Structure to design on (651 residues):
């Protein structure tokens, strides 16, 4: 499991996210914003008797584009497993991490050291 | 000449009121009158695209992305009332706009990266046709407007810009807009760009959103 | 080499990662962390060592020259420093890449900060988010070490820099033609002018408004600071960059940071548009919810006032 280190780069991740804890969640993609400065994925997690919509923060869309990813690679309805650091303010947000797709491909959403 | 082509380097600025409305318009308080910069008598909206334009117009003071300090898109960035500087090499033209430190890299001899990609200023690839720089721009968001009056586009926007030196201190700028989701036919706007002739002409800063932040509004 | 650290994982994964610590033997010849980098004649992972090596290797014959024999900095470059986290030596953590001190003068690598200002620095870390989080520009030198990737374009009269990576699409236009500075128009990135001293480009940028932090540890300057930058070509693929900050309001002496830029030889090193403010509301919400405000900057007059008040408290 890869941790994305300090992936905010110029403003620390730890300010907004608790980096002492890591969550691993499985859910279905509701939407994917390939935008800058941070790409985001919204996915629905089944929490027993209710559903929660979580937001996963990634590196910039440009970094994802450069690695060959496009919006079509993450279609709505795909089941994914995501790991990341949870938001400090209690909102359903993660700083991700790796996103694993059913076909085995993994999107590393963080910043590689050279991208920070 | 740069590499055998016309030299577009320098500081340039449009002088018109297209940024308020690219069609003919009378004055309003704070807004000068202007003759349209489009070649057609009116913008060729598809019938089902007109309601959104009307809605944009009615809400323009808050909904214009430029009023929110967002990047202005293409071609609007060209006629924003701020200067821009053109840098030109063998491999590319880079335009650096004073408005919110926006810049565009316009590459020669290369392809657009495969989409879908949505950038506010699109992706620009250029070639020379004789003495005219022709720039092909795609990969837009749908979030910019052509002017304060709510004229808008979709993500399928395709802009073809043409920059032609019409004298030592003037560029004829033309931009052809194609967007089959919004307009029934392509349309073109055009205007002269004027070289800023002051000896000390320089790109300064207009940091729009930075002035909005409350902390920066406090008197010091 | 990459370093990762696991802490208190809530849900264990079936796969485990090895943990590596930042090593002084970090290879400088080929890095798999920052695009493709050609070999350099000076190692760049220790900024003091790089600085000394670059000065020693300084030559009157730049490796790549313009037609006038000046160094030609054109091309795509990556900055090889993570001093935006902390100008001083700092370890790798989950939040920081880490590295040696970026400060090459004074030689002890410590920022020569006045005592009252050290207190203010600590306050800054508690009160303010980093300016890049609000998409605010980083100043003349900050732009160079906070932005990760650049293209430099150069002609007889200008060195132009366009940047990408988390600093809100900055650019710098540096006239080389000896034109005078403008008048009293403070700006985030100041009013730069470059001139050649033998094979070194020296850049002065008055009129910077100091409304940015120098690193993630709350370090700062006032608008009265004089910032002098120097750039030279160490070899075809390495730029030696240094910046001297001279602000007697805050520091006991001027101090200099230095680091390398390495040429990016990726297949596609194009600098792309990286919008910031247009999609930043949610990130601002996270900062605000955690109590952080935007750093407003500090003037020389304010600094002198704070220093006087601090001194009175010591009596």
């Amino acid at each position: 499991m890869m941790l994305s280190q300090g992936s905010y780069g110029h403003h620390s991740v730890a300010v907004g996210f608790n980096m002492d804890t890591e969550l691993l969640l499985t859910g279905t993609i509701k939407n994917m914003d390939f935008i800058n400065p941070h790409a985001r994925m919204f996915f629905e997690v089944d929490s027993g008797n209710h559903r929660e919509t979580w937001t996963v923060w990634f590196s910039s869309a440009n970094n994802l584009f450069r690695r060959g990813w496009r919006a079509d690679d993450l279609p709505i309805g795909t089941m994914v497993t995501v790991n990341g650091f949870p938001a400090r303010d209690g909102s359903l947000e993660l700083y991700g991490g790796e996103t694993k797709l059913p076909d085995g491909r993994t999107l590393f959403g963080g910043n590689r050291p050279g991208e920070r | 000449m740069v590499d055998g082509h016309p030299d577009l380097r320098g500081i340039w600025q449009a002088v018109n009121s297209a940024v308020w409305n690219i069609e003919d318009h009378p004055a309003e308080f704070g807004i000068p009158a202007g003759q349209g910069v489009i070649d057609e008598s009116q913008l060729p909206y598809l019938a089902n695209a007109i309601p959104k334009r009307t809605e944009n117009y009615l809400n323009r003071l808050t909904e214009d992305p430029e009023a929110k300090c967002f990047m202005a898109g293409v071609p609007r960035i060209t006629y924003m009332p701020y200067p821009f500087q053109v840098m030109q090499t063998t491999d590319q033209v880079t335009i650096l706009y004073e408005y919110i430190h926006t810049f565009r890299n316009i590459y020669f001899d290369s392809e657009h990266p495969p989409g879908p990609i949505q950038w506010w200023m699109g992706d620009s690839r250029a070639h020379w046709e004789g003495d005219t720089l022709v720039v092909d721009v795609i990969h837009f968001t749908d979030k910019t407007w052509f002017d304060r009056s709510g004229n808008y586009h979709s993500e399928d926007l395709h802009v073809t810009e043409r920059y032609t030196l019409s004298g030592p201190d003037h560029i004829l700028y033309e931009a052809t807009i194609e967007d089959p989701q919004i307009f029934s036919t392509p349309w073109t706007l055009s205007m002269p760009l004027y070289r800023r002739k002051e000896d000390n002409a320089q790109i300064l800063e207009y940091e729009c959103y930075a002035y909005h932040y409350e902390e920066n509004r406090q008197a010091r | 080499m990459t370093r990762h650290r696991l802490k208190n994982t809530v849900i264990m994964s079936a796969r485990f990662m090895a943990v590596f610590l930042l090593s002084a033997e970090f290879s400088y010849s080929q890095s798999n962390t920052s695009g493709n980098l050609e070999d350099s004649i000076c190692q760049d992972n220790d900024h003091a060592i790089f600085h000394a090596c670059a000065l020693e290797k300084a030559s009157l014959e730049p490796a790549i020259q313009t037609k006038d024999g000046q160094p030609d900095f054109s091309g795509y470059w990556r900055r090889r420093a993570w001093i935006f986290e902390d100008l001083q030596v700092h370890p790798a953590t989950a939040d920081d890449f880490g590295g040696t001190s970026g400060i090459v003068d004074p030689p002890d690598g410590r920022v020569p900060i006045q005592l009252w200002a050290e207190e203010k620095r600590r306050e800054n870390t508690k009160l303010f988010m980093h300016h890049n989080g609000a998409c605010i520009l980083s100043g003349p030198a900050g732009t160079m070490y906070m932005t990760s990737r650049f293209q430099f374009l150069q002609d007889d009269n200008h060195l132009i820099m366009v940047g990408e990576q988390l600093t809100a699409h900055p650019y710098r236009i540096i006239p080389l033609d000896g034109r005078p500075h403008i008048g009293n128009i403070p700006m985030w990135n100041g009013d730069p002018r470059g001139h050649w001293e033998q094979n070194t480009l020296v850049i002065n940028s008055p009129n910077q408004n100091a409304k940015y932090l120098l690193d993630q540890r709350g370090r700062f300057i006032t608008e009265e600071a004089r910032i002098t930058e120097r750039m030279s070509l160490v070899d075809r693929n390495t730029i030696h960059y240094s910046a001297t900050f001279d602000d007697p309001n805050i520091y006991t002496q001027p101090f200099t940071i230095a680091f390398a830029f390495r040429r990016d030889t990726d297949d596609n090193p194009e600098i792309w548009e990286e919008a910031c403010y247009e999609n930043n509301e949610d990130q601002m919400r996270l900062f605000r919810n955690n109590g952080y405000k935007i750093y407003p900057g500090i003037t020389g007059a304010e600094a002198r006032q704070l220093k006087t008040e601090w001194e009175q408290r010591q009596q």
User: Anything to note?
Assistant: Strands of chain A lie at 23-33, 40-47, 50-57, 79-86, 93-100, 106-108. The interface with chain C takes residues 1-3, 5-6, 8-16, 19-24, 33, 35-38, 40, 55, 60, 62, 65-66, 83, 87-89, 91, 93, 112-116 of chain A (CB under 8 Å).
